[in-house]
Every structure is written in structure tokens, then in C-alpha cells.
């Protein structure tokens, strides 16, 4: 029987244990379609009854609503891009100067300190799109070149205060509230930033923590870096219809790396947590998963202290990715664009990119929640959400204007520098 602690998905296990890795499936961070198809064919040949597996109790056979879509529906970007008017840009500029003249710090950005009397109504309607609509939109475009890095951060926080006012810390260990997504491999003295966000490689489909992930484009790459979005509900519907056994697998606990702990000690505990959850009051489902926590990434491979995935778990993770590729929308983020994406109903991915001395990809990132519009939190996610959105005291909040690697991914020497 699973304990109450484990049922929340927060139980830690495995410190110092020797675990048999001989049955580890052949799966890595970057998906291999040929390997996935071969594994699928073999598992179905061994057990033809898998597609007839009942769905987990209470899980819907099909999801419906505006969150179920195909990427081809959004080929016309005018359907999801909101281009700010000159009047609205002037209102934002006026709010910047109002905030600065008032002497506030970035810890105090809210709807009163960053007033947008007209634009606020549009932003509120767009916020509803994240929770009750298609699950994404793009604001175009802030004239970033006329503002300082600190002012661009202020604009990002000020606009976001009208969309989802609750902000999660990007790095609780040092209080950083905003993340920088860019290639930092050349700046890390250990040569290993440790996460795809700080490399120029592609990122498979995944979801970030919390309700909403947002990106503010400060710079574009010379080539590549396209953003991909997909309806997780569309992916769920196809799995529920064709492979309900994999829905069952996703709703059961996976052995996952505990970021930050294992970065310092490769024999540290791991976590048991499902990827698929059902909201308590209705049929809505949430799939929140990170492939890296299940597979490792390049120079930070999966620890031998973590039990291997089963073949069913490996197939399910790959199925999420390749079905996402099948149904996704690809978009190019331009300098000055702000993208808002639901982590509740969507997955996102990124193409690899190439920088040049003149053109370097650089994004700011926020994790957000709108308490008034938020979905009921599944009990199994409650502890995770409480920890994620636990407010960092104002005297510890940081808003770095220069890119930095999150503490959990730094090597020992950088970690010591951070504490100095």
C-alpha cells in the first residue's frame, strides 16, 4: 500500500542504496523515434491486450473544450498574437516612469504600483484564455532597445501582474524571481551548466512547474530556437483512445531525480511522483512532466541511486513526445514578444539554435499563477504547489539583470562562490 506521503508525490527514497540498473530501458533525454516504435511494437507483440486496458478509475475517455486543438488550427498567428498599439505602449512607458518616480523596488510591482488603466482590461481577458481558452497567447511587441535591462524586467513584471499576479521563485536557494534562458555553456567555469535551458540544444516536449510559464524575448538567435506548443488534452485523448494502458502508467508514480539535491550528491534520494493527475471536482486532467528528471541530461546523467524506469514508463514518456510532435504548433519568438503558456493544459518544446556575435538568443522567464482563475489543485499536487508558490520574503527576493545558472545546476566551485 502506498503511504500518504508517497501519495502526494513528495516522498524521498534511495539514499545510499545499491540498485540494479541492468534492466534500464534504452531511453535518453533527446527522443529517438525508431527506438520508441521498436519498443512499442515489441511490447504490443508480447501483450496484445494492452490497448484494451481500462482507464484509471474516474479518468475521462475523452476531454472536450477549447483546450483540445490541433496546431494547424492556429496557422494564422493573428488568432493568438495581440499586437500592442502605440497608445498601449505609451501607457506601459508611463507606468515605468510612475514606478521609478515612486521609489519602489522590483519586489513591490503590482497593479497599483504599475498602473495600466486601459490595457488592464485586455490583459485580464487574455489571462482567461490561459485557464478557460486555448491555453496560450503572445503579446507583440515591447520596444526593448529603448529600455535598460532593469526597466525591461519591470515591464515584464508589471504586465504579468495583470495576468497572473502570484510569482514562483526561479531559484529558492538564492531568492531569484526571474530566470534567464540563454546559452551559458561558455560562461560556466566547470563547462557544464547542467540543464537544457542553459544550452543551445533542442528541448523535447515537457511542462514547467505551476500554472503558467512565460517568456520575454530580449534577443533572437542567428538561427533556430523556434518555440513549439501542443494541447496536452489532445495528446491525452489519443492515448485514452489507442493506448489506455499508457494513461494508467502515467497516472502511477515514476522514480524521478530530485533537482538540486542530486546536483551536489549523486547518491541522494529520489522522488516518486506521477506525471498525470485528475482535478478533484471535474474531468479536467493535468499532465506535468519533465523528461530530464526521468532520463538525465548529457553531463548530468541519471543517478545510479535512482531505480530504472520500466519499459512501460519509457514508452509512455516517448509517446507523450511523439504525439506532441504530431499535433503541435511552431512559432518564432521575436525580440519584444512575451509568450504566456498554460502548464495545466499544454506542453512546450524548443528547437536547437545557433547564436552569433550579433544575434544571441536571450529570454526572461517567469512561473505564474492567477489565484482567482486557478483550477482546483489535485491533492497529489498540493504539496508541490504549496512549495512552489510559497512567497519568498521581500528582503530575499532578487531580480538579476544578467544571466546566471540556477544554483541547483552549478558545480561545487560556483556553488561556493554563490554563498560567498
From TrEMBL:
GO terms for molecular function: oxidoreductase activity. Residues 1-25 are annotated as: Disordered. This is Clavaminate synthase-like protein. Keywords: Oxidoreductase. InterPro entries: AlphaKG_dependent_hydroxylases (IPR050411), TauD-like_sf (IPR042098), TauD/TfdA-like (IPR003819). It comes from the Eukaryota. Residues 107-367 form the TauD/TfdA-like domain. The keyword Oxidoreductase applies. The lineage of its organism: Eukaryota, Fungi, Dikarya, Basidiomycota, Agaricomycotina.
Amino acid at each position: 500500500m502506498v503511504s500518504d506521503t508517497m501519495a502526494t508525490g513528495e516522498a524521498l527514497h534511495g539514499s545510499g542504496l545499491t540498485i540494479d540498473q541492468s534492466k534500464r530501458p534504452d531511453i535518453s533525454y533527446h527522443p529517438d523515434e525508431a527506438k520508441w516504435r521498436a519498443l512499442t511494437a515489441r511490447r504490443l507483440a508480447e501483450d496484445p491486450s494492452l490497448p484494451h486496458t481500462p482507464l484509471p478509475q474516474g479518468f475521462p475517455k475523452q476531454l472536450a473544450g477549447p483546450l483540445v486543438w490541433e496546431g494547424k488550427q492556429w496557422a494564422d498567428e493573428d488568432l493568438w498574437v495581440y499586437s500592442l498599439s502605440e497608445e498601449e505602449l505609451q501607457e506601459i512607458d508611463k507606468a515605468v516612469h510612475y514606478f521609478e518616480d515612486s521609489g519602489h523596488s522590483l519586489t513591490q510591482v503590482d497593479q497599483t504600483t504599475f498602473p495600466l488603466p486601459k490595457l488592464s482590461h485586455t490583459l485580464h481577458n487574455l489571462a482567461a484564455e490561459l485557464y478557460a481558452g486555448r491555453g496560450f497567447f503572445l503579446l507583440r511587441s515591447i520596444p526593448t532597445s529603448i529600455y535598460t535591462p532593469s526597466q525591461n524586467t519591470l515591464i515584464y513584471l508589471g504586465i504579468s501582474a495583470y495576468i497572473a499576479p502570484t510569482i514562483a521563485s526561479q531559484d529558492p536557494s538564492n531568492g531569484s524571481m526571474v530566470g534567464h534562458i540563454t546559452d551559458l555553456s561558455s560562461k560556466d567555469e566547470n563547462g557544464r551548466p547542467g540543464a537544457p535551458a542553459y544550452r543551445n540544444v533542442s528541448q523535447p516536449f515537457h511542462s514547467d512547474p505551476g500554472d503558467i510559464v512565460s517568456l520575454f524575448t530580449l534577443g533572437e538567435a542567428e538561427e533556430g530556437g523556434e518555440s513549439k506548443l501542443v494541447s496536452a488534452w489532445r495528446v491525452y485523448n489519443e492515448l485514452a483512445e489507442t493506448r489506455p494502458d499508457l494513461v494508467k502508467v502515467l497516472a502511477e508514480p515514476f522514480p524521478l531525480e530530485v533537482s538540486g539535491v542530486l546536483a551536489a550528491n549523486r547518491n541522494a534520494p529520489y522522488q516518486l511522483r506521477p506525471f498525470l493527475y485528475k482535478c478533484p471536482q471535474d474531468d479536467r486532467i493535468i499532465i506535468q512532466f519533465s523528461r530530464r528528471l526521468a532520463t538525465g541530461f548529457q553531463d548530468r546523467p541519471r543517478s545510479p541511486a535512482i531505480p530504472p524506469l520500466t519499459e512501460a514508463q519509457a514508452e509512455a514518456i516517448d509517446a507523450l513526445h511523439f504525439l506532441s510532435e504530431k499535433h503541435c504548433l511552431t512559432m518564432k519568438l521575436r525580440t519584444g514578444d512575451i509568450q504566456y503558456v498554460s502548464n495545466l493544459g499544454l506542453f512546450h518544446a524548443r528547437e536547437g539554435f545557433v547564436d552569433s556575435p550579433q544575434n544571441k538568443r536571450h529570454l526572461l522567464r517567469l512561473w505564474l499563477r492567477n489565484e482567482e482563475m486557478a483550477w482546483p489543485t489535485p491533492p497529489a499536487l498540493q504539496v508541490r504547489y504549496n512549495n512552489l508558490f510559497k512567497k519568498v520574503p521581500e528582503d530575499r527576493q532578487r531580480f538579476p539583470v544578467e544571466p546566471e545558472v540556477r544554483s541547483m545546476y552549478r558545480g561545487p566551485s560556483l556553488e561556493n562562490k554563490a554563498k560567498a
